[in-house]
Amino acid sequence: MKLNNIRMLLRAAGKGDSRWEQFVTISFESKNSKPRKKSRLVIQILIGLSILLAAGSMAFMLGVNYYQMEILGSIVGIDGFSWFMGAVTAALITFMFGMFSGGSVLYHGKDLPLLLVLPLTQRELLISRLILHYKANFILHTILFLPSVAVTVLVHGFSLSVIVAALVQIIVAPFIPLSLSLVILHLFVKGKKHSGKSRESWAIIFMLALLVIMQGLASRWMQSGMDSSNLENFAKSFGVVLQGLQRVLLFPKWQMSMAMGNHTFGNGLYFLLAVSAITTGAIFLVATAYGETVTRLWETSTTVRKNNGKSSRSYTGRYALEWALVRREYAIINEHSAFKMELYGEAVIPLILVVVYAISGVMGEFKEMLEPVFGLDIFPMMVAGALLLTASLSMMSGTSYSREGMLLALSRTMPLEGVSFVRGKMVAHLMLFYSTYIIFSLAALAIFNLGLFHALWMIPLGFFVVGSSACFGLAIDGRNPRLDWKLPQQAVKQNLNGLASMGISFGNIAVLTGLGYLLTERLGLPALPSGLLLVAPSACIWWLSWKLAVSGARKLYQAQ
Amino acid sequence: MVAIQSVTKKYGNSAKAAVENLSLALVPGEIFGFLGPNGAGKSTTIKMIVGLLSQDTGTITVDGLDTLKEPVLVKQRIGYVPDEPLFYEKMTANEYLQFICEIYRVPNEARQERIVRWAKRFSLHGVLDDQISSFSRGMKQKLGIVTALVHEPRLLILDEPMVGLDPKSAFILKEVMHEFCEGGRSVFFSTHVMEVAERLCTRVGIIKNGSLIACDTFHALQGRSGSGDLSLEQLFLEMTDETE
Questions:
Q1: The CATH classification of domain B2-84+155-239, taken from the options 3.40.710.10, 3.90.1280.10, 3.40.50.300, 3.40.50.2000
Q2: Least CA distance to B80: which residue of chain A?
Q3: Lower CB count within 10 Å: N or C terminus of chain A?
Q4: pLDDT digits (tens, 9 = 90+) for B24-55
Q5: A&B contacts, CB < 8 Å
Q6: CA–CA separation, A285 vs A11, rounded Å?
């Protein structure tokens, strides 16, 4: 085995996979002119800061959870329980991400067909891929684990054992979930039980559910002002379960004991030996047939069959063309898991949050908190405004043309006017975001006992506001689509068109909110007529946005 | 069928034209082979005819319709096979063909029959319900050809259509091109395979550095060269100076 070969493989993989490269290539027409260079730097700094802010807020959210766990632990007699939970959470989510990314890195990497024909040993290839797998998940594990270290330091103070345990565990602990993901991936691939996509989908669903539950718990605890009386009740009910968990889950138990100075050396040794054994076992299992497995996967293409061979006929009614274009939109979204995660997530996460809040009782508390403003005429407007904001802040249309990438050339050969594409894209947008807005609106009217008659203005208002966010998004993306992306994330997450369209949607809602305030608070009109009156300006804004979207599409689809 | 008149196209600020003062006409019922070295301007010309690119000067008409003034009507008349086939890969072949039929407004009652007929012709019938992402390069090329034919266009434009095809499929495509022209429709295709152009084409046009340097039947080109027994390959190399 040549170490130089492994180093070369890692360097080659890094060339196409640099995280920073994703931000550097953010859409600019000319990369060399000086003003562009300056604005690029500013944007990169802004993006860097927003990433730090996002990571910071996630760390804070976790910290709140871990802090509550620490208090809970002290009630049931477990010191350092936040560390324990930090280790469990980091391991669980790293395991899920490991399942998600491991398949691509180890077995389905786009560079594997190229590497398989190079004079490399199976072991060199495997080790380079394992290092990449570790690198891809190390930062995530650290972000998830570090807040528990911070909480431990906050509660128990600095000590040598905390520092040593933190350093060792940050480096070594990811091996446990990653080894497990490795074994399961290997069994999946060997057994060919499930396609890579179904494996990824389950990992995404599990991970989203986990994040939403954590968010729900964090909100609940923050709302109760970190009151420990709730925790005492919780400890009475679940204290035995927590103690049992702490006894059974050996790895986090050793990790916690290391940090709390409870036989630091002994527990550290157990931990390191066990991690080494598991990692070696997992690598040994995978290494037995790695080369053959990868070769077999690339030799046989996965054939995905639908309808058991019976050719399906598509809908052929009056709106068949529009329906065909809508289905095309979803076919493009379904091409990449990055698109699916972003767009379906934007539409569905608020819905999951409502369910979680309702189950966890936060919704009831929220209702109580809002009771003083229930009687205000403007309250239904406030509800509608909040719901419209949720429905409008999406990347769906602001990145719609960009998502097509090279396929835009295919669209441009089709005998259709730009307006047809806009119609299809807007309907696809409404299906995802207007439908969820309707569900939210009806649920909100029922929860807050506002009277279903408010749906008379909330439903049409929502149509025009969500519709105009779709059209503004299309107008922006249609004028300068980002088509030359290499990674799907560049078309959505790192596409400034999406951010700009969200900004315009926000402005649109701000204008309507101002008008609503004027009608109810200044002119003293009740909510129902005010809401009905608001439909007219929202329809005008929608008409303007529609014109802009159509003119953008006309230019985009004409010969260049 | 197709009339290209004094067309020039430059990319961006480039001083050199990709296509310069190009004029040619395609008559109904003919198979026209468009030949030229790499970078000569073949794909640029094709992309201007199908409406992907606009010319800087000159006009292009298809069935008398200006490609820039009536792009939708022109596209409706064209079946286009690009050099690199592009599809929505998460659709099955059948879903994709149904989608194309919808876009080109193929009558409902004719759709499934046409899809099955063309799929059978190119041996894709058994994989119609498979996702396109599982197709090989050759199968995708065949699906691209079926896509171009399923809406029964008046003009078939193919950019390097033989690439990736197995011998049987290449043979079938040549048959199809002949049959297509029998009803007064036309085929315009680019290729680097001189034997195919020699046997298949009614006329050939040779483009070099963006300019058309020859446009005639194979026999007329032979006659013009002064030697009656030169192959199209030899003529091509001679005209494009690639033997030097």
A1: 3.40.50.300
A2: A413
A3: N
A4: 999 999 999 999 998 889 999 999 999 888 89
A5: 111
A6: 26
